[in-house]
Amino acid sequence: MADQNVSEAAWTLITSFQEANQAVAEYLVSARERNRKLAKRFFTEVIKVLKANQAAAQGLVATQESGGKHACLAAGVRPADQEAARSPPDELAHRRSCRDRV
After folding, report:
1. Cα–chain-centroid distance for residue 91?
2. Cβ-contact 63, 71 below 8 angstroms
3. In sequence order, which residues have a C-beta less than 8 Å from that of residue 82 and are 6 or more positions away?
4. DSSP SS3 for 90
5. Cα separation, 86 vs 79, whole angstroms
6. Which residue has the higher pLDDT, 96 or 9?
7. What is the average pLDDT across 40-54?
8. Which of 75, 57, 76 is nearest to 65 (CA)?
9. How far is residue 86 CA from its own chain's centroid?
10. pTM for the model
11. What is the percentage of the chain residues whose pLDDT exceeds 70?
């Protein structure tokens, strides 16, 4: 009788471990699926933002190439400043201009 009780207790313990393992496995599978969907949605949104930024940048470049000179003049940007913006920075000239402003 005692052997039967021990055997039943062991069987109950094994069954509870199996059920717990099954629950953990199901949770891990569902977590993996949620993470996959989240990653897919994240990268899809990032690609949309990058494409929108690219389109905006292309629009700005096209505007600058087609009428940038007129747009700069309308905004009050002098031709010398436009040229300075296009040329690489000259550290000495930059220091001089900053010193002259003071």
Report:
1. 35
2. yes
3. 69, 72
4. coil
5. 11
6. 9
7. 95
8. 57
9. 30
10. 0.47
11. 65
Residue indicated by tokens 């207790």: 9
Q: Give the tokens for residue 15.
A: 């069954």
Encoded tokens for 76: 């009050």
Domain ranges for the chain, please list them. 2-101
Residue 87 gets the label, from left (phi > 0), alpha (psi -120 to 50) or beta, of beta
What is the secondary structure of 21-43 as a DSSP string?
HHHHHHHHHHHHHHHHHHHHHHH
Q: Where are the alpha helices (H) located in the chain, listed in sequence order?
A: 2-74, 79-86, 91-101
pLDDT of 91 above 80: no
d(CA 79, CA 6): 95
In terms of pLDDT, which residue wins out, 78 or 35?
35
Q: Which of 84, 82, 85 is nearest to 74 (CA)?
A: 82
| Each residue's pLDDT tens digit, 57-87 | 998 888 888 875 555 555 555 666 666 666 6
**Do you know the residue count of the chain?**
102
